[in-house]
Design goal:
The protein is of the alpha+beta class and 391 residues long. Helix content is 19%, strand content 30%. It folds into 4 domains: 159 residues, 3-Layer(aba) Sandwich (Molybdenum Cofactor Biosythetic Enzyme, Chain A), CATH 3.40.980; 42 residues, no CATH class; 82 residues, Beta Complex (Molybdopterin biosynthesis moeA protein, domain 3); 68 residues, Beta-clip, CATH 2.40.340.
Length: 391
């Protein structure tokens, strides 16, 4: 067995950054930018009215102006304003040539084609968004390596971009093994349990924004697992196998992985839950064999698969956020094994009951994993512990 620290180091060393692809801005949120993006134009592209009101040529002594025309968003005034003249203008419309102030419509009185401005309402450059006040032409708008959000997608569109280069999303296959498993929605037969690992993993992957995921199932037969692994690997960057990686009479995953040419990077980690965790590689493809118990599956996913996927997707930060928080619970364990404990973080962190690897009920109420290293034997109330925030 190897340590948690060594196992994580090996995972991130072997995960490779995927190629880039061009996608439209409306699909960019959640993806990592693979290029610097420079603005091809000023934003806004012209001096723009920030209000519905009247554009005027500033004159500190004038209080009355003659309205010459009306300009809505998408239109423009072709002339040039002189002293004493105004143009009715609406939010987003280009400010007419010669104008250097926009007066809010609430601050004027209208009489026919004349307006009278309230005292103090006329201020030079008021309510004008200057051209380039958001971004100047040629300025760095978005930096390579940043994760794009909805605002970034909108910014790309506002610059007229039809496509942007991002790192490809990993293609994932999930292979669930076990003769005891039965799909939800069917009548449960004696000795069977409903299969939940693929559902939990799918939900976790979709939460990461990954959609190219294929699920497979195989009984506890080495030749069937081997054939399904080959099929799963063909169209995947990463394969997640659940169950059959321990040392029982029906644990055939290890043999199947070896027989299709997967090289073992490590097998077994000094941790609880998830000690039998396997990580291997064939070419650039990564293979994780996760223990079959549901809490072990999710724990190993978040602690090992999650950072591999993040690195492959171009994220600069691979692992979950970590904080130190005072424990609101006491906990004891033996030295020699690291523990990942389901927890609830608020003002402090509560170590939840039901830490056994088969229990999902406590995991459903958790928002973090409390990490206790190999040397730790006891946590007292008030002791500060490492907390990994679940995404």
């Amino acid at each position: 067995m190897i340590s948690v620290r060594k196992a994580k180091k090996l995972v991130t060393e072997h995960a490779r950054l995927l190629a880039t692809e061009a996608i439209p801005p409306d699909r960019a949120a959640g993806r990592v930018l693979a290029e610097h993006v420079y603005s091809p134009l000023h934003l806004p592209p012209f001096d723009q009215s920030a209000m519905d009101g009247y554009a005027v040529k500033f004159d500190g002594n004038a209080v009355s102006f003659k309205v010459m025309a009306e300009t809505a968003a998408g239109a423009s005034f072709s002339g040039k304003l002189r002293s004493g003249q105004a143009v009715r203008i609406f939010t987003g419309a280009p400010v007419p040539g010669g104008a250097d102030a926009v007066i809010m419509q609430e601050k004027v009185k209208v009489s026919g084609r004349m307006i009278t401005v309230e005292e103090g309402a006329l201020v030079r450059w008021a309510n004008i968004r200057p051209a380039g006040s958001d971004l100047m032409k040629g300025a760095l708008a978005l930096r390579r390596g940043m994760m794009l959000n909805a605002a970034a997608a909108g910014l790309l569109a506002s610059m007229g971009k039809k496509g942007v280069s991002v790192y490809a999303s990993p293609r994932v296959s999930i292979l669930v093994t076990g003769n005891e498993l039965q799909p939800a929605g069917t009548k449960l037969r004696p000795g069977k349990i409903y299969e939940s690992n693929s559902v939990a993993l799918l939900a976790a992957l979709r939460r990461m924004g990954l959609s190219d995921v294929t699920c497979y199932g195989a009984p506890d037969k080495e030749e069937r697992i081997r054939a399904t692994l080959r099929k799963a690997a063909r169209g995947s960057d990463i394969v997640l196998l659940t169950g059959g990686i321990s040392v029982g009479d029906y644990d055939f995953a290890g043999a199947a992985l070896k027989n299709i040419g997967v090289r073992t990077v490590f097998h077994k980690v000094r941790q609880k839950p998830g000690k039998p965790l396997f990580f291997g590689k064939k070419g650039a493809k990564l293979f994780f064999a996760l223990p079959g118990n549901p809490a072990s599956v999710l724990t190993c996913f978040y602690e090992y698969v999650f950072p591999a996927l993040r690195k492959m997707s171009g994220h600069p930060k691979f692992f979950m956020d970590e904080v130190k928080a005072p424990s609101r619970s006491a906990y004891s364990k033996r030295a020699g094994m690291s523990h990942f404990l389901k927890g609830k973080l608020d003002a402090g962190v509560h170590i939840l009951p039901g830490q056994e690897s088969y229990k999902l009920g406590s995991f459903a109420g958790a928002n973090c994993l409390v990490f206790l290293d190999e040397k730790t034997k006891q946590v007292r109330k008030g002791d500060f512990v490492k907390v990994h925030i679940l995404p």
